[in-house]
Amino acid sequence: MPESTETQPAPARVAYKVRRDPCGIVIFGATGDLTARKLLPALYDLACEDQLPDNFYVLGVARRPLSNDSFREKMRTAVAAHSRFGAPESERWKSFARRLHYQPLDASQPDAYARLRESLHGLDRENHTAGNHLFYLSVAPSLYASIVEQLGASGLARQRDRGRRWTRIIIEKPFGHDLASARDLDDRVQQVFNEEQVYRIDHYLGKETVQNLAVFRFANGIFEPIWNRNYVDHVQITVAEEIGVGERAGYYDQSGALRDMVQNHLLQLLCLVAMEPPAAFEAGPMRREKLKVLQSVRPFLRRELERCAVRGQYAPGTMQGQSVAGYREENGVGANSSTETFAALRFEIDNWRWAGVPFYLRTGKRMTARRSEITIQFRAAPLQLFACTAMQPCQPNLLTLRIQPDEGMGLQVITKTPGLEVIGRSVQMDFSYGADFKSHTPSAYETLLLDSLEGDAMLFADGDWIKSAWQLVTPILEAWAEEQPRNFPNYPAGSWGPAEAESLLSREGRQWHTR
Ligand code: BG6
User: Fold this and answer.
1) Domains identified in the chain and CATH numbers
2) Contact yes or no for 113/154 (Cβ under 8 A)
3) Of 202, 204, 243, which is best to mutate to test ligand 1, by the most ligand atoms within 8 angstroms of its C-beta?
4) Average pLDDT over residues 477-483
5) How many angstroms separate the Cα of 381 from the Cα of each of 226, 368, 391, 474?
6) What is the rounded distance in angstroms from the CA atom of residue 502 to the CA atom of residue 487?
7) How many whole angstroms separate alpha carbon 124 and alpha carbon 308?
């Protein structure tokens, strides 16, 4: 056979996961909910998958006086409830639990850090972890800056041996409460840590299906030519939750859907859909492209907000046959609270790829179903040559990327209905992760913890992105704070949100597809 003269594609430039250095992981807020529900189960699952370094330890710190043994017992219960491997089997648990330690410590007290430093020296020696430390801030956000500063003052933030002994810090969301507080926090963090030491978590970026967005877009050549204003009519992003505010009213009532979900998770999704192909699948190039998207989003104008931003709050309602309370009746929520539990927004991205293509985003609590998905609606064919039945009018071509649950993707296309007449009908081509890949999916926290141990910041938000995201939502935050909503609560629990969210699309001849 003659040798092909076709040019071979250049090998993809891929960032391989290489280093798992020995290290100590220090969790501030070790008796909290996040540690029990997500962090410890994720670390245990990684240990079961043999993904953690041979030498590591976890030091939990919090104010509550606990012994190592009682901390381990608490964590065993947490792991049994939340690990994807189920209740830990005895030998496996023993070998994991001996790495767990606890130190009662009031992180707001400067003298606590000398004691912490001493404990770390001891644990480093015992566990041969070479002085590498990963600090995890899983505490109230009001403590972030002071912990960072105390770590700096006590010398614990320093990297030694020209970075060979590393120190990294993971900061949970929310990173700031608004633009001013995010700037302030970022400045204070940057005074102590270099940017490459800082990992700002947005757990959506660790979700398999969210990572798949980049792979889907940039590993398949066929979509790129149509991924733009010439072919896309509009984009919808829905992150709907069934849960209400639960026991988190203390935090949520000060926050609301815009701060809690849109400023971070939904804008990250928007960036992944809208970004240009990065020069490499690595932190720097990915972050640069995502930031460019935010910089191109048309700023919201106060006088136009009515037409592009809708807020809602759930009233009592029925979900799966059960009556559920309205937001204002929830534990810890004031009877006149004006906090929004739902937000729907219309974005425009003023760049060459997306000019004129609206991006509709919505998120809410106590909605009909838990459903997070992205739908790309393509423009209609220029001419309808075929009839569609009155019962089933021809739907547009839709590409749906299902983030959760039922992870997968679907493409809606029009086909001929079998029969003697030529009648079109929409059908769904479907791919489901569950059916096609039988393997266990790691949790977002597993992925993110492992990446931070490897020094790979690609799936973390950088300071500039976070500040741009705050800047974008600021006019809405300000307007909503100044003008009390007159119609709250305005959607029943168990619905798809307020009627105004429907009008946001219907007045432009469109409708939400996720139902
Ligand atoms: C968190 C929000 O960041 O994300 C919560 O604070 C929300 O209010 C949660 O419920 C949703 O995450 P997930 O992974 O359940 O979609």
Assistant:
1) 23-172 (3.40.50.720), 205-442+461-506 (3.30.360.10)
2) yes
3) 204
4) 95
5) 13, 33, 20, 39
6) 16
7) 54
Catalytic residue among 101, 203, 234, 265: 265
Distance CA 230, CA 127 (A): 58
HEC-encoded secondary structure of 428-494: EEEEEHHHHCCCCCCCHHHHHHHHHHHCCCCCCECHHHHHHHHHHHHHHHHHHHHCCCCCCCCEECC
Residue count of the chain? 515
* HEC sequence for 141-194: HHHHHHHHHHHHHCCCCCCECCCCECEEEEECCCCCCCHHHHHHHHHHHHHHCC
Side chain identity at 77, as an amino acid letter?
A: T
Answer left, alpha or beta for residue 119, where phi above 0 means left and psi between -120 and 50 means alpha.
alpha
The separation between the first and the last C-alpha atoms of the chain, rounded to the nearest angstrom, is 54
Question: Tokens 């998905």, residue?
Answer: 373
Q: Please list, in sequence order, all residues whose beta carbon lies within 8 angstroms of the beta carbon of residue 44, skipping any fewer than 6 positions away.
A: 79, 83, 85, 88, 96
186: tokens are 């970022």
- pTM for the structure as a whole: 0.93
Which residue has the least CA distance to atom 2 on ligand 1?
260
CA distances from 122 to 65, 129, 451 (A): 20, 10, 26
- Alpha-carbon distances, residue 309 vs 219, 312, 504 (angstroms): 34, 10, 8
Give the span between the Cα atoms of 82 and 79, in whole angstroms: 5
Coil, helix or strand at residue 111: coil
In sequence order, the 6+-apart residues with CB closer than 8 A to the CB of 383 are none
Which pLDDT tens digit goes with each residue over 177-232? 999 999 999 999 999 999 999 999 999 999 999 999 999 999 999 999 999 999 99
Mark whether 177 is an active-site residue: no
Question: Does the C-beta of 124 come closer than 6 Å to ligand 1?
Answer: no
CB 293 within 8 A of CB 271: yes
Ligand 1 nearest atom to the CA of residue 251, by list position: 6
Give tens-digit pLDDT for 423-472. 888 889 999 887 777 777 889 999 999 999 999 999 999 999 999 999 99
Q: How far apart are CA 146 and CA 189, in angstroms?
A: 10
For residue 474, the number of C-alpha atoms closer than 13 Å in the C-beta half-sphere is: 15
Window from 95-109, 282-296, 412-426 with minimum mean pLDDT: 412-426
* 502 band by pLDDT with thresholds 50, 70 and 90: very high
- pLDDT tens per residue, range 61-113: 999 999 999 999 999 999 999 999 888 888 899 999 999 999 999 998 989 99
State the distance from the centre of ligand 1 to the C-alpha of 380, rounded, in angstroms.
35
Which residues partner with 430 through β-bridges? 410
Question: Phi and psi (nearest 5°) for 300?
Answer: -75, 135
Asked whether the beta carbons of 166 and 132 are under 8 A apart, the reply is yes
